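Bug #77: duplicate submission created two jobs. Keeping one. Sequence:
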Amino acid sequence: MTKASVDVKLENMTTLSLTTDFGNLNGFVGTMKGVIWKIAPDVNIADISHEIPAQDIRTGSIALWRAAAYFPAGSVHVAVIDPGVGTKRRAIAAKLGDQYYVLPDNGLITPMLEDAEAAGLEVRLVHLDKPEYWLPQVYTTFHGRDIFAPVGAHLAAGVPLEMLGALITDPIRLPLPKPVRTDEGIEGSIVVIDVFGNCSTNIRVSEVANLENATLFIADQVIHGVLPSYGHAKIGDLVAVTDSEGFIEIAVVNGNAAKTYGIKLDDIVRITVDD
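Kept job's structure:
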């Protein structure tokens, strides 16, 4: 094979991401990859996460939303956090802007869909009702392998979205918490707690007028100012910083804010700004 042919092959290679709550113990993820590669041998598979807490649709949706924006145009994102597997819940696929999604219709698509709608991007969704694009045998307990993986592979191989099912306009949406303005400033909540115990809010730094003069209230603690990074404080300090997606994050320098202060998802964060 010549270098030119290799370059062409790489340019035409589609990326397919996987996001699940399967973990890596039992081989479920590897099985899905095998299904994908049998249908689309040249697809490049990227793992976003397989450590989403079991049945935690919102955490899975936020993890996918934060990652998908960094993928190349035309990428296919297969996400399976699916407590309703085997029931009447729909399986769906979507094209949002220049990205494709294959996932259960349980709200997983919400943040990506809301962003696409707000930006005026292309939004097309289908109900996956064409069994010819599934595995021949579908079990009610593993739609990740039997429906979502093969459909994602067919998309990555070039099958048009509309071939996979009937168009729909009514996907299930999660009631994602939004920050609200108050007389004193802004109030939001904790929406992500990472492996380090850092607690990200749903408040963008751009929504706070003066970061240096901001005062944050969380878990009976008071934090003065939003710092550029963890290194601007001492080890063990409770701080507010800007996380990697532009949201305000609560952290303990070289520690675990969630464990130290008992911070949980949905805990309220209030911010006031002194003039």
